[in-house]
Design brief:
By secondary structure, the protein is mostly helical. It has two domains: about 5-185, Growth Hormone, Chain: A (Up-down Bundle); about 205-400, Growth Hormone, Chain: A (Up-down Bundle). Helix content is about 80%, strand content about 0%. It contains 17 helices and no strands. It has helices at about 10-40, 45-70, 75-95, 100-120, 125-130, 135-165, 170-185, 200-210, 215-245, 250-270, 280-285, 290-300, 300-330, 335-350, 350-365, 370-385, 390-395. The two termini are about 40 Å apart.
Length: about 400
């Protein structure tokens, strides 16, 4: 039996800080939407603010990976926590003041998006630097479970704050969570693997070479990207598809809550399940996302839609810690943050495309067509990874040994 990750002081403090920031982040989406809607009454204004956060995050992720590998990931995470604390505090105080200005909100969210690009790649070296290799799966499952529990409780907490104290206090709570996370990071020690100083281009190329050298990795990332693109289609067209039904808005809320429950159950399952071929099993599970897409297009009964979405998100909850554990154990520590940054970049790249194309396709062909197409694409992409030799050869964690660094 391996030592439980929470028995390690460094991981225990890291886990506490990450959980606090996850709770803070979970209340922000609803608060931001309501705040911008109240201030402007414009959907375009909300899209602008969201884009200000997402675009710099995607563009700067590879650079964030270089920084996390080249310098101390703990210090990078601490710095980005402080930056995001300041950005969210500015938004909160602006909203509490009663005269929020759209440019100020957009700039603050852009700063938060930039900080996020440098924070996201630090997660991998922070976990591997505080937990021994044999405890990685349990550690990743703990982090995923905490994040998913925060997502489940976030909307209720957001509603309580918004309708009692106002949306500004949700941002103050998020700022406080980042401050607490930074304070905890300041008192822990994290193992790190120094890398030789080279040019920025050489560091970026080395990270991409590590991704490209593993057929199980880059082919799975294509499938994950298709999954996220399909998720954007469902998020865009789903509320409209059920709106015409009796209690349509309530149905959609239940669907989303069922998905949150599924995420949590999937991450809890991952801490105990030991599939012999983890990448193959996790990718096959992602293919279940085709079910809610197809059922929504077909006008299936609400209970069937709810059940299928819960199953699909359970598969996602299972994939996250299983995937992260295999990646962390397979990629050399000195290049891990850069590899993870490309992972995030490629996985999320299709989401803006899905958001943009879904309404256009719906207007041209009706909502059912893009939903059916998305179902076919996500099913084929995720199941298709089974044809990749590296995916089939990827064995359980106990059989994983770190692979050699690819020379550049």
């Amino acid at each position: 039996m391996t030592t439980h990750p929470l028995r390690h002081r460094a991981f225990r403090l890291l886990f506490t800080g990450r959980t606090l920031s996850a709770v803070g982040d979970a209340v922000v989406p609803a608060a931001l939407a309501i705040a911008v809607s109240r201030a402007t009454g414009s959907a375009a204004a909300l899209s602008l603010v969201l884009a200000c956060a997402m675009v710099p995050r995607l563009l700067l992720l590879p650079l964030g990976g270089v920084v996390a590998d080249r310098f101390d990931a703990r210090k990078a995470a601490l710095t980005t926590d402080l930056v995001r604390c300041a950005a969210q505090l500015v938004v909160g105080l602006e909203l509490i003041g009663g005269d929020p200005r759209l440019p100020h909100l957009a700039v603050a969210e852009a700063i938060g998006g930039i900080a996020s690009a440098f924070a996201m790649p630090t997660a991998a070296p922070l976990v591997t630097g505080t937990v021994d290799g044999e405890g990685l799966l349990r550690a990743n499952a703990l982090v995923a479970s905490a994040n998913n529990a925060a997502r489940l409780a976030g909307p209720a907490l957001a509603g309580a704050l918004i309708f009692t104290a106002g949306p500004g206090w949700a941002f103050v709570l998020d700022a406080a969570s980042f401050a607490a996370s930074a304070a905890l990071l300041a008192v822990i020690q994290v193992r790190r693997t120094p890398i030789p100083r080279r040019s920025l281009r050489a560091d970026l190329v080395e990270g991409w070479s590590e991704v490209r050298a593993r057929d199980w990795y880059w082919t799975s990332l294509i499938a994950h990207s298709m999954w996220n693109g399909a998720a954007a289609v469902l998020a865009t067209l789903g509320p409209l598809a059920v709106h015409g039904r009796a209690h349509g808005d309530g149905i959609w809320v239940v669907v989303l809550q069922a998905g949150s429950v599924g995420l949590l159950l999937g991450s809890l399952l991952a801490s105990r399940a030991r599939p012999k071929r983890p990448i193959l099993a996790a990718n096959a599970g992602l293919a279940t996302y085709a079910l809610p897409l197809a059922l929504l297009a077909a006008g299936a009964p609400a209970w069937l839609l709810v059940a299928s979405y819960a199953l699909a998100l359970c598969a996602l909850g299972f994939l996250t810690p299983v995937w992260e554990t295999y990646v962390y154990a397979s990629v050399p520590a000195g290049v891990l943050a850069r590899v993870v940054s490309y992972d995030w970049l490629l996985s999320l790249a299709a989401m803006p495309v899905g958001y943009a194309l879904a309404p256009l396709a719906s207007d041209a062909f009706g909502a059912a067509v893009p939903l059916y197409v998305s179902a076919a694409v996500v099913g084929a992409a995720c199941l298709g990874t089974a044809a990749v030799p590296g995916v089939r050869r990827a064995k359980a964690l106990t059989a994983v040994e770190p692979e050699a660094t690819v020379p550049v």
